[in-house]
What we know:
The strands form three sheets. Strands 6-5-1-2-10 form a five-stranded antiparallel beta sheet. It has a four-stranded antiparallel beta sheet with strand order 8-7-11-9. Helix 1 (57-65) runs antiparallel to helix 2 (148-158). 31% of the residues are buried. It has one domain (11-198). The protein is globular, with a radius of gyration of 17 Å. The two termini are 28 Å apart. The protein has helices at residues 57-65, 148-158, 169-172, 193-198; strands at residues 11-19, 22-30, 32-34, 41-43, 74-85, 88-96, 111-119, 127-130, 138-140, 173-174, 181-191. It is built from four helices and eleven strands. The chain has 202 residues and is an alpha+beta fold.
Amino acid sequence: xxxxxxxxxxxxxxxxxxxxxxxxxxxxxxxxxxxxxxxxxxxxxxxxxxxxxxxxxxxxxxxxxxxxxxxxxxxxxxxxxxxxxxxxxxxxxxxxxxxxxxxxxxxxxxxxxxxxxxxxxxxxxxxxxxxxxxxxxxxxxxxxxxxxxxxxxxxxxxxxxxxxxxxxxxxxxxxxxxxxxxxxxxxxxxxxxxxxxxxxxx
Length: 202
């Protein structure tokens, strides 16, 4: 059985948040060019989009996930940019976000939302967020289905509504080996077995 695709992307952008005292992260690979941005870099986007400062990307990510989290048990924390030198990731820049959760509801322990898609080489390119207000286990495979917040989230990663902007992940994120996202497949809500163990419910 083949192993994971080798990492050839030179940059990694990590968004960090905390749900019921447990830290989570969402990592994105990307290509960057030096600039006068606070991070020191601009994105090198796919065709049809313009470069933007990496330090400006956190607002859109946290805004897209905000409806799935309640501020009484979740905080949105930081972003971190790293550069790969050989096999080692080296810190470049970081910052905090001013975006706060906007959802309202009881904490849903050890669940996840997987936004599944394909890259340019037709390899799986899933995106995950954890322990949010996702509801019961389900699979959503129509862009027209789901809540407005769900539609906005899959549009952020896969441009399903055709309205992605320069700060949308669709414009700048890639797979481990620099392949751009090309199509969305489904959204899957389910439990996460690793989180079940961490939360002592397995």
